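Hey,
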Amino acid sequence: MSRQVYINGKLVPAEQATVSVFDHGLLYGDGVFEGLRAYNGKVFKLDEHVRRLFESALAIRLSVPMSQPEMAKAIDDTVAANGIKDGYIRAVITRGAGTLGLDPNRCSDPQIIIIADSISLYPKEFYENGLELITSSVIRNHPAALSPRIKSLNYLNNILAKIEGLKAGCVEALMLNHKGEVAECTGDNIFLVKKGKLYTPPLDAGILEGVTRNAVLDLASEAGIQSSESAITKHDVYVADECFLTGTAAEIIPVVKVDDRVIGSGKPGPMTKELTEAFHTLVRA
């Protein structure tokens, strides 16, 4: 059976799922999106993802033609229609078709698109042995130019850093903010462990407020692990005892080398493993 894609209230076969070439989501990256995960047929942190999607839309003055509960139901319905048990969901809202000019007021109906498919994870050996990162020369967009908390369709900033990482033989790359502090990676948030305490950059470092990031902070609190959302430098990364990344697709993945510096023992550390086990228990609950 063909994959079913939700477009504006209807489920249609994937090969028939189209939007106008005049859609400003295509022409200018004018729109927002969310990536979600399903485990055992249930979407993880659905309400949190939908809330963030609507906040992104509000921030760019994009009117969503449905309520948050309606969006959540549409996501659930798309997952069910495709028989997805463990998979990935992409929810997209575009500005809609308009003219070749920038004026968003000339756009017609916003397009709501939901795609549910199988999940493509990092290879198993990366979770067992850890990732190697480089620090990209591409910095995160200045927050006064574009808030990193808006999950917009324009991901060129991240893509350029991703290209640099891939050219260096790394599947992820660390990105700094305009102050030279650690922000996040191209698609994941970053955590450090030092002397038994957990550290991660604060929201004002220019990061996306990751749903998985927040889940890990909650799990750490429940486990009695002290955590701090505070400014982090490259030096802090280099001398950390452990490092790991979090994201909807990546879940929790260890990092063992950054800029050719070995992190800690050079192997996934005990706190990383503890939080990974707790996270796997959480998503399967």
